[in-house]
């Protein structure tokens, strides 16, 4: 089989690290860590900065109707179809400066490295900074990749934040017109690969002492909301035996989430939000609301976990005369990555003299939406202490540069193998 020559990053990757530094400066200084939330002026500035860098790098670039920044580096036309790479530049509140940004800055660097090395791919290379990947105040994530893949629905635009504002009405802050967002849906039938570089956001690579992670699957997520309805009574005069304490039924259910999710190495369960009403020390709760989720790369396990939680919540309610409503919110199925692309990336990693582990992603990514339509691969680089979505998030420069080199050469190799000879 014909193999592509391996290419290095020009200037030892200095420009890539400079770009990350610049993006790290475009943040809300009033909060600790790094904050560039979607739907804010800062995020608009960040995406326009990416647009300018793309144009500077010689890409034909624009911002689409869903706020995605898209740049195309033309190939020589000898291969059919396109290759895509990218990530996101929005952050969570008080997050880190690497999540998403590493993938976008590296994708840009891939385009620049190709030009610097005089390499013209057989395929057009599409570099993308997806709009609003992190969960926004309307409970939505991966907005840009949903729109690009045609998966954004009117129900998403109607999703309300705590103040009752619909997501569609909040999009003005991002300079996105909700009525035109569907125009961002792209025909992806000619895309032969989407490859995303990202920080791991977990402890596995560090624990195993490997430099590169090749992602086998992206986790499924099954979020739920449960409401427990009991009876409000006096905390001092109501005997324990006759209480209908909604808070206790909710607490039992929270513990059941922990027990169920502890069954498997790869399963996760979290009850991230609980509200007692009334919220008072000396009153028995009338209602309690719990929001939580299960995650696993195994769809069958998620189905099993749902059943077990429903039984557990019913039992917790029944023993206290408390009514239980358990509602499953729109979920995401686990998504496998492309085995042929993982194979190519694995060869590139070995060729570059780097070590790697295969692992699944417990975090959601734009790649999960892309993978539903195009062959997709994700490459991880280590996160120090496994920390992410916090100011302590850190990845060594050497690891970022190694990841960018893997991304670059994987894309070149994919193009060479798909070239029409
Ligand atoms: Zn991310």
Describe the model.
With 421 residues, the protein is an alpha/beta fold. Helix 1 (14-25) packs antiparallel against helix 3 (101-116). Helix 3 (101-116) links the parallel strand 3 (82-88) and strand 4. The mean pLDDT is 96. It folds into two domains: 10-219 and 334-417, Aminopeptidase, CATH 3.40.630; 220-328, Alpha-Beta Plaits (2-Layer Sandwich), CATH 3.30.70.360. The protein has helices at residues 14-25, 41-56, 101-116, 143-148, 154-158, 167-170, 204-208, 246-261, 299-318, 339-351, 366-371, 397-418, and strands at 60-63, 69-73, 82-88, 124-130, 191-199, 212-218, 220-229, 233-234, 268-277, 283-284, 287-296, 323-328, 335-336, 356-361, 376-381. Strands 1, 2, 3, 4, 5, 6, 13, 14 and 15 form a nine-stranded mixed beta sheet that branches. A four-stranded antiparallel beta sheet has the order 9-11-7-12, covered by helices on one side.
Class computed from helices, strands and strand pairing: alpha/beta
Helix tally equals 12
The CATH architecture of the largest domain can be named as 3-Layer(aba) Sandwich
CATH level-3 fold name of the largest domain: Aminopeptidase
Q: Which band does the percent of strand residues land in? A: 15-25%
Helix content: 25-40%
Q: Which homologous superfamily in CATH is the superfamily of the largest domain?
A: Zn peptidases
Query: What's the number of extended β-strand segments?
Result: 15
CATH class descriptor name of the largest domain: Alpha Beta
Ions, cofactors and other ligands present here are: zinc ion
Sheet having the most strands? 9 strands, mixed
Mean pLDDT: 96
Low-pLDDT stretches are none
What best-fitting shape do the alpha-carbon axes yield? elongated
Radius of gyration: 23 Å
N/C terminus separation: 12 Å
Total count of domains: 2
Order of helices and strands: HHEEEHEHHHEHEEEHEEEHEEHEHEH
């Amino acid at each position: 089989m014909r193999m592509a020559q391996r290419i290095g990053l020009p200037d030892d990757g200095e420009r890539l690290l400079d770009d990350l530094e610049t993006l790290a400066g475009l943040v809300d200084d009033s909060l600790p860590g790094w904050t560039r939330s979607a739907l804010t002026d800062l995020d608009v500035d960040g995406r326009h900065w990416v647009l300018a860098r793309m144009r500077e790098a010689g890409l034909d670039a624009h911002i689409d109707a869903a706020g995605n920044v898209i740049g195309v580096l033309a190939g020589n036309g000898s291969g059919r179809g396109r290759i895509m790479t990218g990530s996101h530049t929005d952050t969570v509140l008080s997050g880190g400066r690497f999540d998403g940004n590493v993938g976008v800055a590296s994708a840009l660097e891939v385009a620049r490295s190709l030009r610097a090395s005089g390499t013209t791919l057989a395929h057009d290379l599409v570099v993308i900074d997806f709009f609003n990947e992190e969960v926004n105040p309307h409970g939505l994530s991966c907005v840009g990749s949903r729109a690009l893949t045609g998966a954004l629905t009117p129900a998403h635009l109607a999703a309300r934040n705590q103040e009752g504002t619909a997501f569609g009405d909040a999009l003005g802050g991002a300079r996105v017109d909700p009525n035109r967002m569907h125009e961002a849906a792209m025909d992806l039938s000619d895309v032969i690969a989407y490859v995303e570089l990202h920080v791991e956001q977990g402890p596995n690579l560090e624990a195993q002492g490997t430099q590169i992670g090749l992602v086998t699957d992206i986790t499924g997520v099954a979020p739920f909301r449960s409401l427990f309805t009991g009876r409000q009574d006096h905390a001092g005069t109501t005997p324990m035996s006759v209480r209908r304490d909604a808070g206790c039924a909710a607490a039992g259910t929270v513990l059941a989430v922990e027990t169920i999710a502890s069954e498997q190495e790869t399963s996760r369960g979290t009850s991230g939000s609980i509200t007692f009403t009334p919220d008072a020390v000396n009153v028995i709760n009338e209602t309690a609301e719990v929001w939580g989720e299960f995650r696993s790369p195994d769809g069958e396990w998620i189905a099993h976990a749902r059943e077990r939680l429903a039984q557990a919540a019913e039992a917790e309610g029944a023993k206290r005369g408390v009514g239980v409503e358990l509602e499953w919110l729109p979920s995401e199925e686990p998504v496998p990555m492309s085995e042929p692309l993982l194979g190519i990336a694995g060869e590139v990693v070995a060729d570059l003299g780097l070590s790697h582990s295969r692992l699944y992603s417990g975090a959601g990514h734009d790649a999960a939406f892309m993978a539903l339509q195009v062959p997709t691969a994700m490459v991880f680089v280590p996160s120090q202490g496994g920390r992410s979505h916090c100011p302590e998030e850190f990845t060594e420069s050497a690891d970022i540069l190694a990841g960018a080199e893997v991304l670059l050469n994987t894309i070149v190799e994919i193009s060479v193998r798909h070239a029409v000879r």
